[in-house]
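Late entry, written up from scratch paper. The run itself happened at the end of the previous shift, but nothing got recorded in the book at the time, so transcribing now.
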Amino acid sequence: MKNHGAFMASSAVRSTATLESVEIFRDLMARYRAGVSQEDVDFTKNALLKGNALRFETQRALLGMLNTMSEYGLPDDYISQEENYVRELTVEKVNEMVNKYIDPMKMYYVVAGDAATQMKELKKLGFGEPVMVN
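Output as recorded:
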């Protein structure tokens, strides 16, 4: 994005698993802050680089990439630059970014579901009073 980006994770679960699901997201983010391993970084790098091969295989995907490049003023070799950035990622760089941008207690958790049954449960998370938005 031009000014800032967003980190998002989502899951579709049954109502009775809402609290547990939010706890899992919170706990995963806390584990990332404790440090990612070389194995995690290698897996992510491989997935991103291999996924790029399929990322632009349709006309629609290519058009989307060109629109993004035009909208954000990206250079012609932006994909190559992006891939080089991924190749050069180290455990130290990833851990630095995680500690800078991911804090599970400062994140916004948006939960869509049955407020009548889940609002009381969500209070157990320790994030403060849940806010209902209609």
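The chain has one domain: 15-125.
(Scratch paper discarded after transcription.)
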